[in-house]
Amino acid sequence: MKFRQEKRCGQYSWLSQRKARPILLTRQECEIRKMTCEMSTREKVTVLDLMIKWFNNNPFSPVEMIPEACIGILNDMQSAAILKQVSFKRTSILRQSVARLSLYIRRKRAKFTNKPEVFYIQY
């Protein structure tokens, strides 16, 4: 019976030997809290889904990478939200600039030809 208990402990020895820092840095915690306060509940659910996908794709990543990955995903979500708000302004500006460019291309330009120099002969 004692042999089986030692065997069970040996199965999880990798977990006890793994030195990890489970403490979240204060800077990281403040960044995560600040970003999540600005988000809607729908965006928070999306971030959680992306974090679950990240965990599934990186099962053996170190513990220190988890807050960094979370901050990266939150930054991506925040920049996507900003781009959605700004995209309407940018599309109108793009349309205006394309219209100006097309007018510039269609405009008739004055053609300058090289005129010969005229020499006057004085008597």
Automatic annotation (TrEMBL):
<protein>
    <submittedName>
        <fullName>Uncharacterized protein</fullName>
    </submittedName>
</protein>
